[in-house]
């Protein structure tokens, strides 16, 4: 094949020859299209416009894994920004089981795993809150309360291309410090051919074969259908249409070991001092280790990090401690995951000057779990036993525990429904040969609701047991207690029905851009535009803050054993946790230490959760088995509106300097954001006594006052990108941009309650109200950063790349407590009161990283691809309970409040090492690949309380896929994720204090696809 080179039009034998897709991308960038065009280039673009092919040379079509990697290389090479992308030759050919898995194959990207699959994506080791996600160039909503996107919501079979922009230009929507993740669906006229395709994938999970699942059968499936067509008319008009449907019905097996989480008040650093018998593990009287026996009998104490004003150190400084939660438990799950998705696109070109695109994406997903828990209550210390026998590691994690406590057989019935809708219309008009105008209107909405039944039956008295930490999870030994006998759990039967996390996230946006071509030797075009958007986030409140609860205990007239036996089921799983346990998870022994067969093993007494809940609720005279409603007018409601207007101007250049071709762009984006937050507080009346003393009294009618607050900011985001084509196969790249990441919508809420003067001497409202408590800060400023990238890239041929990137990010911002003054209207009077809340600080932090990509293919059909990212940072995130905490008063004076016992975490989601590799073999119609992905440990914040530390341990996961093309229409596929059953392990507060282990097992898919 002979291709014309750029500089001298000579034949380029043996050198890199750009694919048509790459040529089209370069042309688009030079013409000044929006940067998203880098990854919307179509492989089916007219080859005659991109290359000149000798008529007597046969063109060899490259498909499958090799083609995917070639397009990845081409996309990266021809981009102006630092971009890594993944595209499919045909709809349905994206080589991954989910969008999350597809993104993980891109250098520097890694995922957070839930239910065994990839969900949130990190870029260059940085957490998802520092990234932004766009679908067809528009913001995507989610139901999590943050700005990350759960990529398992979108079927990979209906997405055409994915890309990660690691540097940005002025035309891109702001919001991604780490990068921007872009997804694109098909545009039918650009696709250029008729296509009908259908695919069925059968799913079998080996661990599911061991579960008697009441929610799902052993085998699941994914069925996908898509259709693309174009219609041309004699008058020059053209219409293209595409739509795709997918139905997914699978299981997501998961077996768990769990400890109480640090997100609430159930995990403590209890004192482990033999000389202190008033509290801790050596207390003189049986009771919770965080409570005191005598004196003030303070509760919920544990290790006190508050600084003693006399010593300047923590009150408990120097005292040994150990971490213990309210419980340690095992959880067996029956699971179901159903998803219905529809993608649609309509493209209309009334003439050569007009192009109209409408697209829609709809996804409805329902996840269900029937959970069965064996819970060992844990905080109670037994005098003379627990303390002397306690064994810990060097960070206070318990390795051996003994004592007497209650045991529970508990259960939960959980469901989460999440509905996504995204719509957009894009109108592009070529006004003149030089001027193009583009109008884009978009709407996106996600709704989420969670329903949960929580049941409990427990022992009537404390039972003696001990446990030892195994290689991966603890193992319990009980004395004369059979956990498989349901009659042992007849005390304190209780059920709770919760409706919670009912959320709506909506984005409405409009964008108007122009592209004006210049007739110059340096500057090729000027781009500019304006964008306005309104994001709303609503979380309904209830009696439980983020939801509502109906709770029932067993009426004394009903026999507990009748309820338990009437609802009892066989333990649903064989081989429970066998891949992470050292044997039986529970051993029953008699008083002489002999093993008792009954009660020894890896199972316990279980019951049907719905049956149990109905029976307990029905035992109450007024008991109704029903989920409660949530309310808008509630003190737990979060209602946030974020209005953004941004404008940008950018110049594109492409010229020759010192014998080298250079190209790129520079520009400025200005972003103005206004946040309004609505909340509700209890209504108070100001009451005046006969002596003139004021007091607050809650309104008799229980009414609520609507309160409102907000904030605003304007940010300037310059950017500069440079690419130097040093030779035909070597280029250098550089980028500088100012980035911003906004606070999560759930953190912008506005909840406030008053602190009242307790002396009873206030004669004015300003004296009566002395402070405010609350959460949420609608005036939270974004985290700003300067970002610098420099790269060397070598492209020996179409199948090969060696790329090295060095990047540096300087953050201006962190998170700390600060006291500010807010104004409130009470009794018709405006009062200024102090409140301490989380703010974005002015601290400076740095991230330095190195990213490397390598790909090579041998002539025998074997190829490989590696990606590695290393990063280091001095960013500090302190735990709010056991870390160093500070408070800044209204005058700017900072005071340290606590002297922590645990080191700070890093940037949320930050991993020092991220590695991905792929070894593939492709010959004829056979195509196979083995994939390995590794991510080192990282700090993962909770959604309910993101101020507490939780670490996810590093893990490597193997995947595999293979396909065989039977003929031009049929192809069989086999795919597997988590091939060797790598569990997810988490530590609470500090690395080394095991908190949770999730065992998913492998997931296997076998499919048949048809294309016409």
Provide structural commentary:
It is a single chain. This protein is mainly β and 1012 residues long. The protein is 7% helix and 52% strand. The protein is built from 9 helices and 55 strands. The strands form 10 sheets. It has a 22-stranded antiparallel barrel. It has a 6-stranded mixed beta sheet with strand order 18-19-22-23-28-29. A hairpin with a 4-residue loop joins strand 51 and strand 52. Helix 1 runs parallel beside helix 3 and helix 7 packs antiparallel against helix 8. The protein is globular and about 85 Å long. The N terminus is likely disordered. It is found in: Cell outer membrane. This is TonB-dependent receptor. Keywords: Cell outer membrane, Membrane, TonB box. InterPro entries: Beta-barrel_TonB, Beta-barrel_TonB_sf, Plug_dom, Plug_dom_sf, TonB_rcpt_bac. Its main location: membrane.
Which key terms come to mind for this protein?
single chain; 1012 residues; mainly beta; 22-stranded antiparallel beta barrel; 6-stranded mixed beta sheet; 9 helices; 55 strands; 52% strand; disordered N terminus; membrane
- The fraction of residues in strands falls at over 45%
Helix and strand content put the structural class at mainly beta
Q: Count of helical segments?
A: 9
Q: Based on the structure, what is the oligomeric state of the protein chains?
A: single chain
The coarse overall form would be globular
Largest sheet: 22 strands, antiparallel, barrel
Q: Compute the average pLDDT.
A: 87
**How many beta-strand segments?**
55
Compute the separation of the termini in Å. Answer: 29 Å
Radius of gyration: 31 Å
Helix content: under 10%
Uncertain runs are 1-59
